[in-house]
Amino acid sequence: ARAEDVGTSLYFVNDSIQQVTFSSTVGVVIPCPAAGSPSAVLRWYLATGDDIYDVPHIRHVHANGTLQLYPFSPSAFNSFIHDNDYFCTAENSAGKIRSPNIRVKAVFREPYTVRVEDQRSMRGNVAVFKCLIPSSVQEYVSVVSWEKDTVSIIP
């Protein structure tokens, strides 16, 4: 080790971030999962390796290396920004490291109804009920219990 290398480091603070799903009505702030000593320069890129740039009121990279995607209306959705893979790099005198790709996906807050599929059965026979969840939200909704007249029958 050279004298200038003593006390230098680059490391991942949290390299387990693989996916960030956020509501279009709220936006999201994503810290770069890397740091270093001396302080590292943090930069964000698209998974293609293209530099990202600020888009006023849509996307901003703060001086501290945090990527911010602002709330937006459905008409302002841009898959290039709101449904893409990103990564960040940290660089200082110790070298340069790259985070794994982070999948960033915006979801729209829409009204939806969960209902039970109609079933017919003869008295004394088994009836199988199915909870119908609209496909647009199926990925984000899970059945946690079944109720009959507001009384939980299957926790």
Describe, in plain words, how this protein is organized in 3D.
The strands form five sheets. Strands 2, 5, 8, 9 and 10 form a five-stranded mixed beta sheet that branches. The chain has 155 residues and is mainly β. It has one helix and 14 strands. The radius of gyration is 23 Å and the shape is elongated. The chain is 3% helix and 38% strand. The chain has a domain at 9-107: Immunoglobulins (Immunoglobulin-like), CATH 2.60.40.10. A hairpin with a 5-residue loop joins strand 6 (59-61) and strand 7.
- What sort of overall outline do the alpha carbons produce when their principal axes are compared? elongated
Strand proportion: 35-45%
**Strand count:** 14
Largest sheet: 5 strands, mixed
Name of the CATH class of the domain at 9-107: Mainly Beta
Low-confidence stretches: none
Helix/strand/pairing class, anyone? mainly beta
CATH superfamily of the domain at 9-107: Immunoglobulins
User: Helical stretch count?
Assistant: 1
Strand/helix succession: EEEEEEEHEEEEEEE
**Distance between the amino and carboxyl termini:** 60 Å
